[in-house]
Amino acid sequence: MPDITLNSLKSLVIFKTLYEDGTATKTAKTLGITQSGVSRSLGLLEDNIGISLFIREKNRLIPTPQAEELHKEILRLMFNLDEIKHSILALKEFGASRVRIATIPGIAYGYVPKIIAKILAINSKMNIYFDIMATNDVVRSVESGLFDVGFVTLPISSEQIQIDTIIKTEAICILPKKHPLTHNKIIDIKDLTDQHIIIPNQPNIAADQLLQLIADNNIKISGKTESNIASICSLVGNNVGLSVINSITAEDLYHKNMVTRPFTPTIHYSFGLIYRKNWRGNKLIQAIRENLSSTNNF
Fold first, then answer.
1. Element (H or E) spanning 176, and its range?
2. Which sequence spans correspond to the domains of the chain?
3. pTM (2 decimals)?
4. Domain 169-268 sits in CATH 3.40.190.10
5. Measured between alpha carbons, how far apart are the two ends of the chain, in Å?
6. Is a pLDDT exceeding 80 seen at residue 41?
7. Measured between alpha carbons, how far is 37 from 46 in angstroms, rounded to an integer?
């Protein structure tokens, strides 16, 4: 049997239309070709694949079971061709048709999703895989090529990836609305005496600095709750205790029963965008940078 070539695609389209329309006359009208052209194309396709696709009874064409299976395969092929077309458009637009994004928890629940939404607003056919992990895991994932783009807490060092600083902010204190300390305009480390504090249960620069400040100042807290960062604002809003976190996370995870106050001494945060060095100049990276500027409203 001869091999099916790309020249057979036209015959496959004619067959698909014939299968769906039911008659050569209607197919010819649908495709804007002659009825004899439809019959000739069907004959060539059957010769090419070595299968009879229709039972011919007078003026009727009855699809064979093989025709039904071929029709299903052609539908899958058409879907894949459409996906390829969208991928090519995405490659033209961004230099990539898909992107795998990893981010730290602290900016995963609002900040990074906003960036993803803006990218998809430009091209809704972009395929995105998004995951949340600790900074060290984000770095390793981007270095190894498992992920294309990462958002991390700085500082980090790596010879294999590009590191761009994207956000600088400071820690703030979040408290339950009815907490006595809400009367203070600024919360000082000494105000944490006898307070129950809530800290992330994953490695976190601010939490480490906060615990160090508590130790250095001999602050006696009443206790602490260690939690996934996504739950901290909810825990505060439900009167479990108070916390010191970065302002971006506080805004992303805002709870109606919490308030925020500046915190001293200042704890600084820096977040970075990381990607493999061969992605420098990539249109997708440029688009992310452009949308970062409109997202950094904290």
1. strand 161-176
2. 8-93, 98-166+270-295, 169-268
3. 0.65
4. yes
5. 67
6. yes
7. 14
